[in-house]
Write a structure and sequence with these properties.
Keywords: Cytoplasm, Lyase. Helices cover 51% and strands 13% of the residues. It is α/β, with parallel strands linked by helices. Bound molecules: ligand LP2KCY5N.
Length: 305
Amino acid sequence: MTAELRDSSREILHHYVILLQRQSSGFVYSSTHGFNQNEVREKLQAFTGGSIDLLKQDSGIAVLTINNPSRMNAFSGSMMVELEERVSQLESWTDGKGLIVCGAAGTFCSGSDLNAVKAICNPQDGMKMCMFMQDALTRLLRLPLVSVALVEGRALGGGAELTTACDFRLMASDSVIQFVHKHMGLVPGWGGAARLVHIVGSQNALKLLGGALKVDNQFGLQIGLADGVLEASQIKQGAESLIQQAENWLSCYTKGPAPVIHALKKVVLSGRELLLLDALRTEKDVFGTVWGGPANLQALASKTY
Ligand SMILES: CC[C@@H](C(=O)O)C(=O)SCCNC(=O)CCNC(=O)[C@H](O)C(C)(C)COP(=O)(O)OP(=O)(O)OC[C@H]1O[C@@H](n2cnc3c(N)ncnc32)[C@H](O)[C@@H]1OP(=O)(O)O
């Protein structure tokens, strides 16, 4: 092997190791990409309004609410910062098993707050916001919880992207998911395009993005963007609220001890994100954490043959 070849192999290996380290830490961007999280955070904080509310329940299912009803739950800058903070809180929630992401007051989220968008409409600021939100949403998807977006009303632009940062999507009747970016002369920037391709395949992703198609619940089910449809609770008296329906739907996947749910999510994530050999090794390591563990021993003791 020539010295030149050896150097370039070393360089490739080095990049690969950094990539794996970043994947395991959860962060997509660092100072090597010119990204300074604190600096972006400070800038975003200037665009106030709304909140991101987190309710952790004893059931192990948390509810994260996008709350800015006077702007159809659009994301102000301070909401972007709060989202990242809530994700941090969920990352260390050892008893957590599931997460419902929803919008306040009957609608999901209308994307970025267009007032903030206008104020930072230059490529440098746009890129910083984009990196901040990619980090936050990638970490949201990588939480050791089974997550579901409860889509009521509209999920537009960044709101549509947010739905793809959950493991599943449940759509209420009359709800719409629409990647309106093309109408804005944009492409998704919060990681929504990359995730959409994983969810619906590149053909459907191109149709949804290229046509800025409105996806209702039936179309959503047909292409695999929606995983279930919820009944409008106000129609039938005594009907369950949408949150209750989402909790019931989710409980099928969150039954059991938290460490087992965390382990399951980790093997699925590594299968999705890593190369096969690395995914297999991760699966082996995770297997080692549950094999002979309390849940495993209890299950074995309760079985009679
Ligand atoms: C990279 C950019 C991309 C991203 O970040 O990924 C984006 O997300 S850009 C934003 C994309 N979103 C949109 O283009 C949606 C814009 N809004 C609408 O099309 C409509 O408002 C609606 C969501 C379809 C609702 O229509 P309607 O029911 O007729 O209500 P109003 O239009 O009267 O809205 C009520 C109220 O809410 C304000 N609003 C709605 N969306 C936003 C928004 N994204 N940013 C800021 N404000 C928003 C709207 O202006 C109304 O306010 P008032 O006029 O003060 O009542």
